[in-house]
Amino acid sequence: MSGRPSMFMIVDELHAEPHGTYPSFNAALAELRRLAMLPWDELPNQAPCTNWRGCGRNYDVAEYDISTTPWREKRRDAVLRMDAAGPRWAEPWKEEHFSDD
Q1: Is position 87 within any domain?
Q2: How far is CA 96 from the centre of its chain?
Q3: What is the spatial distance between Cα 71 and Cα 26, in angstroms, rounded to a whole number?
Q4: How far apart (Å, rounded) are the C-alpha atoms in residues 35 and 38?
Q5: pLDDT tens, N- to C-terminus, the chain (101 residues)
Q6: Could you tell me which of 63, 5, 54, 67 has the C-alpha nearest to residue 29?
Q7: Distance CA 81, CA 73 (A)
Q8: Contacts of 33 (CB under 8 A, 6+ apart)
Q9: How many domains in the chain?
Q10: CA distance 56 to 45
Q11: Does residue 54 lie in a domain region?
């Protein structure tokens, strides 16, 4: 690790829409766990597009170097997809892999 300060952001990759900033990846992951328990067709999971019933959200967690202006994206991981089929976790973040530490 470079030792530079980081901030983590949940981003809906399909709609380029941010969903909050978090001090750590684990904090962002905890919020995604909460979102996965909510209905896909209600806010905040309901997609913002007019075809929201046929759409969904692809939640990524992006890590930013906040020592630069503007922030520089260091890494982005696809984590959770929410749509009518229900929540689907990307490896290695499938629910059975979660720990409570």
Answers
A1: yes
A2: 18
A3: 20
A4: 5
A5: 457 789 999 999 999 999 999 999 999 999 999 999 999 999 999 999 999 999 999 999 999 999 999 999 999 999 999 999 999 999 876 654 444 43
A6: 63
A7: 21
A8: 95, 98
A9: 1
A10: 8
A11: yes
Q: DSSP letter string over 33-96?
A: HHHHTS-TTSTTTS-SSTTGGG--EEEEEEEEETTSSS-EEEEEEEEEEESTT--EEPTT--GG
Look-up of token digits 């959770």:
80
Q: Is residue 58 part of a domain?
A: yes
Evaluate whether residue 35 is within a structural domain: yes
Give the burial class of 2: count Cβ atoms within 10 A of its Cβ; 0-12 exposed, 13-18 middle, 19 or more buried. exposed
Q: Provide the domain limits for residue 61.
A: 6-97
Would you state the structure tokens that stand for residue 31, as one six-digit string? 């919020």
Q: Determine the pLDDT at residue 96.
A: 46
